[in-house]
Structures are given as C-alpha cells and as structure tokens.
Design goal:
11 helices, alpha/beta, about 290 residues
Length: about 290
C-alpha cells in the first residue's frame, strides 16, 4: 500500500495556503520544478488528479479539496508523536525570542504543543524587534530566536519565506490622495526598507502618515483607514485585508525569517527549533 509522505503533504498544504505553486516553492524552500514533481508524485500515490488548470494558475480538484483536512490531521499526528517521544524525559528551560509577526500567528499553538510534550521544560518567551533579539541571542540571553533575515547567519537552522503584501483596512482608505499614506515601524525595519525601496523604484509619491515602535500601532492606523502598510499575510486579520489592485502598488520581494539556535544550546531548544522549522511555515491559514 502506498503511504502519504509528510513532505509531500507539507508542500501540498503550502500550495493550498498560498494559492500558487511558485509561492509554495518559496514556503518550503524548493525550486518550482521540484514542487511540481512533488505534486505529481502525490497525485500518483492518491491515484487521481489533485490540481487542475485555473486561469493562469492552478486550482484544486474535488479530490484535492478532500485531501486538505486529511493532510492537516496527518501532519498534526506526526508532530505530536515526534514531540511525545523526544520530550517525555527532557528537562531544563528554553528561552525563545520572536518578532510580533509570529507571536500573533502560528507560534502560540506550537508552544502549547511543546509544553504538553515537554512538561518538565520551562519556557521563557521574549517578543521584540529582530535586531534586538539577534543581539540578545549572540550574548547568550536567548537559546532560540525567530528574526527577520538580512543575510545568512552560521547559527541558522531553518529559513521561512513568506510573501510581503500591501495591506489596508477592509473598509479601504478613509481618503485617497496623490501621496500614498503609509504606516511603518520605526527604523530599522526590513518591511519599512522594502516598502520605501519599492515605491521609490516605481516613482510613486508617498508620505509616512503613521510611525510606530510596535505592530499594535500599525494595526490601529491601518484599521482606521489612515494609511496602508507592508507585512506578510499573518497581519491580515481583524479587519485588515490585502490592498485593492486599483491602488497600483508596486511588486515587493519575499520576506525571509531565520530560525536561529544558539551554539551549545541544550537538547530541548534544538527540539523546539525543529518543531518550528517543520510547522511554522504552515501556520498562516490554520492560525
């Protein structure tokens, strides 16, 4: 009997959650041709087509729709089994730092699963900006950190790639002007740099209508319709949606986040890093 390879299911769900094979390739860290080959292999195992041409991209067949819930349950079972076997006797503590992006989306459920499977391990959580967290990791104040990636680092154990998208209030901008109003985090911020570079390259006029040291401040400004911002799909909830195409906003790059593990960190920290690397990229849709 054929089995459903978890790697194939992860790629399949990456396509489901992102809506395209190209974005799925970015999410799972494979080439588009490798992702296409994986989907063909999964279709061979299932015995019928899962994807069908739809406009310029691909959509799901009825069999593909049926597979979604099974795939999520299978991957959840794999994760729970791995954690239970690895963590039953583990002890100590893990200090983890994360940007607000993941503190709001994906990380809470995975930390809960880790706490259940590693009941003797104490978790310390710190939420902050990427530069601050990276410095704390280097100084030994953290065992593990999820930070925005600028360049490759020797302590990386995983890389998450997620599309940057322009976001605004579900009700739209309160008023439309020649200058595009932006809500951005204070420097230094990778999303801020990407937004300004894209607009400058496109020759688009803009003004910074709201600045903030936290994502809470950005969310307030965007929800009010005062400005729009650039983040990943994790920010798109509670009244915030992808900006309409008629705003003519420029293309932006993919955001990269690194999971970084301190050299010499204890076994539980490595266990948690492996859990995050295998599951955090799939957490946008499941929330």
């Amino acid at each position: 009997m054929e089995t459903l390879d978890p790697d194939l299911l992860r790629t399949f769900l990456a396509f489901v959650d992102s809506g395209s094979l190209a974005q799925a390739a970015s999410t799972v860290g494979r080439s588009p041709s490798a992702v296409t080959a994986q989907m063909q292999r999964l279709e061979e195992v299932v015995g019928e087509p899962l994807l069908v041409p739809q406009g310029r991209g691909r959509g799901l067949t009825p069999a593909g729709e049926d597979l979604i819930s099974h795939a999520r349950r299978i991957l959840a079972a794999h994760r729970e089994a791995w954690l239970a076997l690895k963590g039953a006797r583990a002890a100590g503590h893990v200090a983890i730092g994360t940007t607000q992006d993941f503190a709001d989306s994906g990380l809470p459920g995975l930390l809960r699963a880790f706490a259940v499977s590693h009941p003797r391990v104490r978790i310390e959580l710190r939420v902050g900006r990427s530069a601050e967290l990276a410095q704390t990791l280097r100084s030994g104040g953290l065992d593990l950190a999820i930070v925005m990636r600028q360049t490759a680092a020797p302590d990386e154990v995983g890389v998450l790639r997620e599309p940057m998208i322009w976001l605004c209030s579900q009700k739209g901008l309160a008023s439309r002007q020649d200058e595009l109003p932006l809500a951005l985090l204070d420097p230094y911020c990778g999303f801020r740099e990407a937004a300004l570079a894209a607009l400058d390259t496109a020759g688009r006029n803009y003004r910074i209508a709201a600045g903030s040291a936290s994502l809470a401040g950005l969310r307030t400004a965007v929800n009010a319709g005062v400005a729009l911002t650039l983040r990943t799909p994790r920010f798109a909830h509670s009244g915030i949606v992808e900006a309409p195409r008629d705003l003519g906003l420029p293309q932006v790059p993919v955001a990269e986040f690194a999971i970084r593990l301190r050299a010499g960190a204890d076994g539980p920290a490595a266990d948690l890093a492996a859990l995050l690397g295998g599951n955090l990229a799939l957490s946008v849709a499941s929330g």
